[in-house]
Design a protein that fits this description.
Distance between the termini: 29 Å
Strand order of the largest sheet: 1-2
Order of helices and strands: EEHHEHEHHHHHHHHHH
Radius of gyration: 21 Å
Mean pLDDT: 89
Low-confidence stretches: none
Helix content: 55-70%
Largest sheet: 2 strands, antiparallel
Length: 242
């Protein structure tokens, strides 16, 4: 499902099935050329389909690769390294490493270091000492945060270029792939310094939508499902009626 959210109203204003460019095209074509030109900024999850559609229709909009989704991709990359090392440890019978990186411990790798408790910090330090790939993955994740700590877009670009070079030269394939992806979308990442807009609210809506599906044990009629989404997450919400 593709959901279009008004970040000012914090409501879903349009949705349709699929994630192709043609799906988002329907929204832009529906609001018309003049309204498309009035759109000032759009936060996206980095999907090429959404970027191409937005660039084609919202010609005056500043396209921002959402910071929330970038951090999500970095966390997924770290977890991918964790899973790879966990499978390797199981094959080798390395019980110490298995205990340190099993699924119950994964959240420690996904949190920022500054947010860890003292015990969690010791756990992470011990893990990094005995496993180099996870240590490298954590370093790359944490070093990317320095991009957003910069005060100007020029400083951020220098930092981002250094990170791309570092990740591209690492021995971790998943981070090499991220390096290529971030190179292609570098300007959209840096646009965050021009307009600090975020689509992170979409995750809250995604959770609501998943709950709707579970409560109904799924929906066979996609149009009815779309209406239910608008009822709970959009302008059809009865709580918004005056």
């Amino acid at each position: 499902m593709t959901n279009v959210i008004d970040t000012d109203k914090k409501l879903i204003i349009w949705n349709d099935k699929g994630r192709k460019a043609e799906v988002l095209d329907k929204y832009y074509e529906g609001i018309g050329e003049e309204n498309c030109k009035k759109i000032e900024s759009v936060a996206l999850d980095g999907a090429r389909t959404y970027i191409s559609s937005t660039n084609r229709y919202a010609v005056n909009a500043l396209v921002v690769y959402d910071k929330f989704h970038i951090m999500q991709k970095l966390n997924n990359a770290v977890d991918s390294v964790r899973l790879s090392e966990l499978n390797k440890a199981r094959r080798e019978g390395n019980e110490e490493l298995i205990e340190l990186i099993n699924c119950r411990q994964r959240f420690i790798l996904l949190k920022k270091k500054v947010s860890l408790t003292e015990n969690q910090s010791r756990h992470l330090e011990e893990l990094c000492k005995i496993n180099e790939p996870i240590y490298k993955a954590m370093l790359l994740k944490e070093s990317f945060l320095e991009v957003y700590a910069k005060n100007t877009i020029e400083e951020a670009e220098i930092c981002l270029n250094e990170w791309i070079k570092e990740a591209g030269g690492s021995s971790l394939d998943i981070f090499k792939d991220l390096s290529k992806s971030f190179t292609d979308k570098k300007q959209y990442i840096l646009n965050w310094f021009k307009k600090r807009i975020s689509s992170s609210i979409s995750e809250g809506f995604n959770n609501k939508i998943k709950r709707l599906k579970r409560m109904a044990y799924g929906y066979k009629d996609i149009e009815y499902f779309k209406l239910k989404i608008h009822q709970h997450c959009g302008l059809l919400n009865p709580k918004l009626q005056l």
